């Protein structure tokens, strides 16, 4: 397999691994989301799930293309522009969810201290 053909596969596999690492965290965030309804954590989580679904959709479209179309997309950097923006959004949302989880923990600790 040539360099042009191998690179998208590795990028897609890397992204799938990152998504796989993220999903267990989403289950954990779910328990904190109910404690912070005013911070919009539900919206962030929904958007994160939308990003994951969009990634899968784009990956399937890319993988379904002919070899000539894939090489053309790589040459014009279409591949990276499609996937990088989705992966960057997912990363930012994961960081935001982590911050919201920290806020929920701090809020719970403060409430325990008030009792």
UniProtKB/TrEMBL annotation:
Highest taxon in the source lineage: Eukaryota
Protein name: Uncharacterized protein
């Amino acid at each position: 397999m040539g360099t042009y053909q191998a690179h998208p596969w590795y990028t897609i596999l890397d992204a799938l691994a990152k998504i796989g690492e993220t999903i267990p965290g989403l289950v954990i965030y779910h328990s904190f989301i109910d404690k912070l309804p005013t911070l919009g954590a539900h919206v962030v989580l929904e958007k994160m799930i939308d990003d994951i679904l969009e990634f899968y959709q784009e990956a399937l479209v890319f993988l379904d293309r002919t070899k000539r179309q894939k090489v053309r997309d790589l040459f014009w950097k279409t591949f990276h522009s499609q996937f990088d923006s989705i992966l960057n959004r997912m990363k930012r949302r994961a960081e935001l969810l982590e911050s919201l989880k920290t806020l929920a923990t701090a809020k719970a600790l403060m409430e325990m201290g008030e009792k």
